Amino acid sequence: VMSMEKTMEIYDIEGLACASCASSAQNVLGRLEGVTEVRVNYATKTAAVETTSSTMGMEVLNEKLARLGFVLHRKNKDAYKKRQERAQKALATLRKQLLIGGFFALPLFVLAMFFPTIPYSNYTMFGLTLPILFWSGRHFFVSAAKQASILKVNMDSLVALGTGTAFLFSTFNTFFPRVLEASGMIPHVYFEAVGVLLVFVLLGKYLEAKANQQTSSAIEELLAMQATTVQLLESGVEKKMPIEIIQVNDILKIRPGDVIPLDGVLLEGTANIDESMLTGEAFFVSKMKGNTVFGGTILQQGSFTMQVTQIGKNTVLAQIIALVEQAQSTKVPIQKLVDKIASIFVPVVMAIALLTFLVWWARGLWVEGLVNAVAVLVVACPCALGLATPTAIMVGIGAAAKKGILMQNVAAIEAAGAIDSIVLDKTGTITEGKPQVTGLEWKASLENQGFLEGVLLAMENESEHPIAKELVAYYQKQGKEISVSVQQFKNHSGFGLSAEVDGNVYYLGNQAFLTEQDIAIDGRLAEVANTYQKAANTLVFFANKETTLAVIGLSDVVKKHAPQAIKTLQATGKTVYMLTGDNEQTAAHVAQQVGIASYQANVLPKDKIAFVQALQATGKKVMMVGDGINDAPALAQATIGVAMNSGTSVAISSADIVLRQNDLRQLTTILSTSKQMVRIIRQNLFWAFIYNILLIPIAAGVLYPWGLLLNPMIAGGAMAFSSIFVVMNSLRLK
């Protein structure tokens, strides 16, 4: 049997106005022959389409999507910028629709509630409703029509059905009141219900769109890390060239502070490179001839020439971008509770309305049957529906913000309560994220230790290395000032520093540096160094030409409250994992300190996202917590991504939630707040629907034998009560 090759393409999709629209697009594309998998993501406005046919191009897909009003765009260099422009334009339009709708809805509500009998009130309300319905609320009817074309319903269908029916019924009664009066019925109007409901639902749409606007910024942050120009070496001459023309095997010159433009091999020179993008680790990585360097990393010290080995989508940075993009595009969208309810509620209400008409018609009262069927449809759409989720989310987000938790993705909030697995990055998440002096031991019986400390401080002050900066800060905290001037200062990349003071040469660096200089390590200092090393410390030695004078231990220390925070999470039944780009020894030491049994060391960005995907494949709901660029793909992939506020902007924009205080204890607060918010949303939806559900039998005419039919004042009262209940219930989150 011949196996067919599958190809996955990710497109931008234009025209998505709601999560259900994404679901509809996904269903249409998924039914096409040759399409094996489709994931349409509303938050990122992307469609990931896997096909087995080479003929299944974008044009064929767009042909099928045309009837829903969606358009696929091929990704190119400007795709992200165009997507952001479309999102900003859509948000601005939504804001304008909300403001104009509110402007007309306020006098409409006041007129209906307090001055319903003044002359021409019905005509005035008709005029006030027109701009709300046909401009501010037009989207709901367009969306409902698209859903109906594929035999689906959602919240937009419910809103369009209720408001559309109410408007048509009210308009008929305004211009032809005698028709119902001739049958002994009162020609009621429901214009204010139409206006107020549309404005409330628009408010919810606006809040959601504003919260989801940040999702694509992670990609843009990563793209901004790519160099746009390079220094190309040709026949020994440097030329500044655009990165697009560079080919494999070209030779480039890299200087301190440069972002390395592409992946390659170091040919000449030495370097200390910040590779935290890949590993998340604060310590610089030393490179020499023959070592691999990666695009997007930053040269901190030294200069070198490199030969390009990977360009375009084959570079490591491009692969990280692709991982983030794929994670955002293929992440299973969280279906909103309100859409789940609407999918069942709408068909039921339509069936009741039809049944109402048929029962009355069977009794020979078709006019009454039509009026009561319309009344069922009008009263079925709860005014408080538009408030149920937004009010709970607004109050919940505000309450969380006061506790230092910034919730960026509205949809993720509803999912946080179901989390059962928590994956923690090590550096900057569990630990402080920078080297700190944990021990400093001087050789015994030194008569001039104070002077030597001054030499050490002066040498470190000349260096830009993170370890040097930490040692300077360590001594400055003790009130020590630089009192010695150094000569012949030299940075030995990958080894350490050397300098002369008063004609004597001093060395500061790693053990390999001392071995190269043939300097012995004092017996007692060797024991201390061994103790530091067992505790996963980085060692720095200070020596003169004859002997080692001091040994310094530095490590990225565990945050003060991390062990207790992890213990609390485990006590609530959550499984906690740790992933790190650091070595096995350091990873084991930190895991043991904080009580984590399951950890992995030496992991790259692709390994982190694979770990999260493996957990999700077993049905786990995963929270990923990190702070680095290397965490971005996993943050985007996880059910909930949580970033530290001290982390990179890429990590923050990839995450759903940001911890402003960089404290892991806040994870427990996130989980409890989410559960409370979901509970409040469910209660709100109950109160939003219950009054209207109770009024449906009255609207259908069940109490007609007792002379009771639906009155607009009863419907208005129900809406007011349910709205007040919803708002008051949401305020409990404070």
Overview of the structural elements:
Helix content is 51%, strand content 19%. With 734 residues, the protein is α+β, with helices and mostly antiparallel strands. The chain has 5 domains: 69 residues, Alpha-Beta Plaits (2-Layer Sandwich), CATH 3.30.70.100; 247 residues, no CATH class; 82 residues, Calcium-transporting ATPase, cytoplasmic transduction domain A (Distorted Sandwich), CATH 2.70.150; 144 residues, Rossmann fold, CATH 3.40.50; 120 residues, Calcium-transporting ATPase, cytoplasmic domain N. The strands form 4 sheets. Strands 5, 6, 7, 8, 9, 10 and 11 form a 7-stranded antiparallel beta sheet that branches. Strands 12-24-23-22-13-20-21 form a 7-stranded mixed beta sheet, sandwiched between helices. Strands 14-19-18-17-16-15 form a 6-stranded antiparallel beta sheet, sandwiched between helices. A hairpin with a 3-residue loop joins β15 and β16. The chain is elongated. The two termini are 62 Å apart. The model has no long low-confidence stretch (mean pLDDT 83).
From the helix content, strand content and strand pairing, which structural class follows?
alpha+beta
Distance between the termini: 62 Å
Low-confidence spans: none
Number of helical regions: 27
What proportion strand?
15-25%
Number of strands: 24
Q: Could you give a short account of the major beta sheet?
A: 7 strands, antiparallel
